Amino acid sequence: MIVPQLIVVMGVSGSGKSTVGAALASRLRVPFVDADDLHPAANVAKMAAGHPLTDEDRWPWLDRVAATLAGGASTGMVVACSALRRVYRERISAGAPGVRFVELEGSRALLEERMRGRHDHFMPTSLLDSQLATLESLAVDEPGIVVAIDQSLEEIVGTIIRELRP
Predict the structure, then answer these.
(1) Over the stretch 52-76, which tens digit does the pLDDT of each residue have?
(2) 40 within some domain
(3) Which of 36, 103, 157, 160 is the most exposed, having the fewest neighbouring CB atoms within 10 Å of its CB?
(4) How many domains does the chain have?
């Protein structure tokens, strides 16, 4: 029997959340949602202008992320979401019990290189340092794993599936 899983693929901009999340969802045959698509228009405009979001900007968005995940509890779901701080992950977990996190980890140089290669995204590279300063990596008591992004997409997805096997 396959147990439906709720998985958040997390990390800073450029870590590959959307790419890894979509590939993971495809392998697991579950829906994929990019949490960027759940941001209110005001948040997108603020980030596009080069301004980091405040916690007050994030709470309604994180609640939408949690509600989206909770809606996929019967089938399983993968969501790509920055979830940079523990308190954000706790907010998501409170609204979507049983969620597990996959933190994508890479060097600043690799992250910046990836961001410079994107032309269809609202996050400017100037906000990378802000995100890295904000990032609180998964603690040992949080439900999830940390995966290095300096490997192929297939290797990353394979590692996630092996490590999160119920």
Answers:
(1) 789 999 999 999 999 999 999 999 9
(2) yes
(3) 36
(4) 1
